[in-house]
Design goal:
Blueprint lengths: L32 E7 L9 E6 L2 E7 L7 E3 H6 L3 E4 L7 E2 L2 E2 L2 E5 L2 E3 L2 E3 L2 E6 L13 E5 L1 H4 L3 E5 L4 E5 L16 E4 L1 E2 L5 E7 L2 E7 L6 E4 H8 L9 E4 L5 E12 L2 E11 L8 E5 L2 E5 L7 E3 L1 H4 L2 E6 L4 E6 L12 E2 L2
Parallel strand pairs: 1-28, 3-12, 4-11, 18-25, 19-22
Antiparallel strand pairs: 1-14, 2-3, 2-9, 4-12, 5-8, 6-7, 8-11, 9-10, 13-14, 13-26, 15-27, 16-17, 17-18, 17-21, 19-25, 20-21, 21-22, 23-24, 26-27
Length: 338
């Protein structure tokens, strides 16, 4: 499984705009302009994978919208003989319990058919990722620092991700139906995207953990907000072949305007005993103080797969509908960017 822990101050890798990008020069209008449509791949028991091309070789990267940064594995940097440089001494980046030392430059780099002159990625240990077998190598993680220069449409149920120009009128994003919910996007200290979401009638700061199969609620939040934790009598458990309990679950309702996911399976996870996070409240939603990058609720694929999502990065709004809304194609469909 992919895991990441970031300590100190994150170094946000810089990527150049794609060769065919004209977003800054485009005339402001209300029509969406699509740069690329990507077919996502999900091997059995694995993560959502995005097709990329590194120095002419087809590969995949794990899609992780909850991660502030993008990375390639050490074996990838070696295999492709990527040019690397040291991370500045004033910046501390930790992943998988190991302090990262290098940035790798990929020249050229393509995301589907979208070509970039070059892109920079953190170099992370190979052990940070394992998963199902794909038909091309899995070389790293695609995070929000790379994707933040685009608007992002995510339709996991149909294994699609579309990237759009940020240049459009506010609110003119949901083209597949007239009814939708929205939430303001916020940026954490590390650059991660989070937003308020309502779970069993209470709002919590939430991230889109596209690299996680299950939605996760921390038990300090479940005790404070709902009066239960992983040891409560009505909690569902999973056990392994040796009879050991491996996970705790609770069926809960995720809701918003026009959206209701009843009996969503929520995995309960105890906070680390060494955590510095303390449960608090911000703008009416449960949140954490005293730590970086942590939020009480992480939406995994079991919930994200039931939603159709549009992230308007410049507008700083998240729009979402059920994955199969009852009204479809009522607005002007998105057009490819020139």
């Amino acid at each position: 499984m992919y895991k990441n822990t970031v300590g100190g101050m994150i170094f946000l890798c810089v990527v150049l705009f794609p060769w065919n990008s004209g977003g800054a020069a485009e005339a402001k209008n209300c029509q969406l302009k699509r740069y690329v449509s990507l077919d996502l791949f999900e091997p059995q028991g694995s993560h959502l994978l995005v097709p990329v091309t590194i120095k002419g070789t087809r590969a995949y990267m794990v899609l992780d919208l909850a991660s502030a940064y993008s990375s390639v594995m050490e074996s990838t940097a070696s295999r492709f003989e990527l040019k690397t440089q040291s991370i500045p001494n004033r910046v501390e980046v930790v992943a998988g319990g190991k302090q990262l030392q290098r940035l790798a430059t990929v020249t050229p780099f393509s995301l589907g058919d979208l070509q970039f002159k070059s892109a920079e990625f953190l170099v992370v240990p190979d052990k940070i990722f394992s998963g199902g077998v794909a038909d091309a190598p899995v070389v790293g993680i695609l995070g929000m620092n790379f994707l933040a220069q685009f608007d992002i449409e995510l339709d996991v149920a149909h294994r699609k991700m579309n990237l759009f120009s940020q240049d459009h009128c506010p609110g003119h994003t949901v083209y597949w139906t007239s009814k939708y919910d929205s939430a303001p996007i916020r940026l954490g200290a590390l650059g991660e995207v989070y937003f308020p979401m309502e779970l069993d009638g209470k709002k919590l700061e939430t991230t889109l953990a596209t690299s996680s199969p299950m939605t996760i609620l921390h038990t300090d939040a479940s005790r404070r907000l709902y009066n239960f934790d992983s040891h409560s009598t009505d909690i569902e458990t999973e056990t392994d072949a040796a009879g050991r309990t491996t996970a705790h679950y609770r069926a809960m309702k995720l809701s918003g305007e026009g959206i209701e996911i009843v009996n969503a399976r929520i995995q309960l996870v105890d906070p680390s005993p060494n955590t510095t996070c303390s449960l608090s409240s911000r703008s009416g939603a449960a949140s954490y103080d005293g730590c970086f990058g942590a939020h009480p609720l992480r939406l995994g694929q079991n919930v994200i797969g039931k939603l159709h999502i549009y992230i308007a990065t410049r507008e700083k709004m998240l729009y979402f509908t059920p994955a199969s809304p009852t009204e479809e194609n009522v607005a002007t469909p998105a057009q490819p960017a020139p």
